[in-house]
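Sequence, please.
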């Protein structure tokens, strides 16, 4: 395997991971920002007020995007196996 193939494989892996994790990260960030605004407005600084809603929102998004995520993982895995079978490495 040449250096170009290794870089391309690593790039594809990072891109796939980023695409699969982006909905979870954006959800946690949006819910955290919303809770922070509410906490600042009401002067409540309870840690569980930040953690529990973020946890529930991320779990909800994980359940909602599970099928899509599995499709992405399977497509990536199939593409890698196809490359190996074709002698691309």
């Amino acid at each position: 395997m040449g250096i170009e193939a290794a870089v391309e494989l690593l790039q594809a892996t990072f891109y796939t991971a980023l695409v699969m994790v982006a909905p979870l990260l954006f959800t946690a960030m949006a819910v955290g920002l919303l809770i922070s605004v509410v906490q600042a407005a009401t002067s409540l600084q309870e840690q569980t007020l930040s953690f529990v809603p973020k946890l529930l929102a991320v779990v909800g998004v994980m359940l909602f995007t599970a099928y899509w995520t599995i499709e992405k993982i399977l497509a990536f895995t199939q593409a890698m196996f196809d490359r190996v079978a074709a002698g691309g490495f």
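DSSP finds three helices and no strands in the chain.
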